[in-house]
Amino acid sequence: MPERAEIRALATQLRARFEAAGAQAVEASILQPAETLLDLYGENIRGRAYVTSDALRGEQMLRPDFTVPVVQMHMAHGAEPARYTYAGEVFRRQEHDPDRANEYIQVGYEIFDRENPAEADAEVFALIAQALEGLSLRAATGDIGILMAAVQGLRTTEARKAALMRHIWHPRRFRALLDRFSGRVPPPPSRTALLAQADPLADLPPAIGKRSVAEIAERIEALRADAEVPPISDREMAALDTLLAVRETAPFALERLRDVAVDLPQIAPALARLEARLQALAARGLDVENLDFEASYGRTSMEYYDGFVFGFYAEGRPDLPPIATGGRYDALTRRLGDGAEIPAVGGVLRPGLMHALEREARA
């Protein structure tokens, strides 16, 4: 197909651009061990990935992206600092949106460097932005690390903070937990009735499922302990509500978040990183005065990012997925590094969408 050949040619040009910026071109197997990805993302990735079984290798998955195999490769063999680029097909099931492609080409650029994370963030964003010049796109940015810092510093139990951290990437569940932990919403009546019983296990039916009686008893004791925990304070909740609602141009967002830091001082280091990143972006000629920043950006689609996040969207085409996305994933290197870790940030482009937008502009 001529169009596919044109998209491949564009992908090759993009990868060459990143190689010229100092990146090493790398490859990744199309079949990836499913166990690693399921461990990272949970079983919900099964709904979006193509999984198959191999008698010798076990469950395998058509690669849903390149970042995980590139991180694995770097943590096993890479020197520091390092820059990588790649181009090739990725595969995502689109059962809820059949009009979107389930196989498409992705081109990426990744940096592993512990010297200056703010500069690395700016380098990735600037290179992606330059590659997209000429297209009518809107850039969106955020920083999941600010919300993570806010949660980790709340005056509540470690168990509650861990539950909130698990659901940062699931906004509805996260909000439901916040409302319950703050007392804004009472616990479910079934839980209240269960905990009111002197011995909830007395009339327990025969065990069904995977949980043992001991595990059920342990869960009930955890619920009893949680019921005695004081609610998250109104002051902290008001500050969290303000933080989650921040959606401004970057300089104004930073000022609003500094106001939030009066009641959530634990976010101050994350705000210092945001400020350093904005300075690095400005030094590269980016117009940070008009750069959109949204504190909640990236929470529904970027589950391994834990800091700076960004995306580029086609203005006037809300039906299209982002043309490019990226962000910082330091925690992923810890998960895959077998005890080692290194700050890392990267971004990916979809040359198929770029090609389609270019054709529309010429039409």
Could you describe the 3D structure shown?
The protein has 363 residues and is α+β, with helices and mostly antiparallel strands. The chain has helices at 2-20, 34-41, 67-77, 117-131, 144-152, 158-166, 171-181, 189-196, 213-227, 234-245, 250-260, 268-283, 330-336, 351-362, and strands at 24-25, 31-33, 51-54, 58-62, 82-91, 103-112, 137-143, 247-249, 292-294, 308-314, 324-328, 344-349. The protein has 3 domains: 1-136 and 318-330 and 341-363, Bira Bifunctional Protein, Domain 2 (BirA Bifunctional Protein, domain 2); 138-183 and 233-314, BirA Bifunctional Protein, domain 2 (2-Layer Sandwich), CATH 3.30.930; 185-230, no CATH class. The chain contains 14 helices and 12 strands. Strands 1-5-6-12-11-10-7-9-8 form a 9-stranded mixed sheet, sandwiched between helices. Strand 3 and strand 4 form a beta hairpin. Residues 10-351 form the Aminoacyl-transfer RNA synthetases class-II family profile domain. Pfam families: tRNA-synt_His (PF13393). One of its GO terms (biological process) is histidyl-tRNA aminoacylation.
Short description:
With 363 residues, the protein is α+β, with helices and mostly antiparallel strands.
Task: Map the helices and strands.
Elements: H1 2-20, E1 24-25, E2 31-33, H2 34-41, E3 51-54, E4 58-62, H3 67-77, E5 82-91, E6 103-112, H4 117-131, E7 137-143, H5 144-152, H6 158-166, H7 171-181, H8 189-196, H9 213-227, H10 234-245, E8 247-249, H11 250-260, H12 268-283, E9 292-294, E10 308-314, E11 324-328, H13 330-336, E12 344-349, H14 351-362
Parallel strand pairs: 1-5, 7-9
Antiparallel strand pairs: 2-4, 3-4, 5-6, 6-12, 7-10, 8-9, 10-11, 11-12
Helix pairs in contact: 4-12, 6-7, 11-12
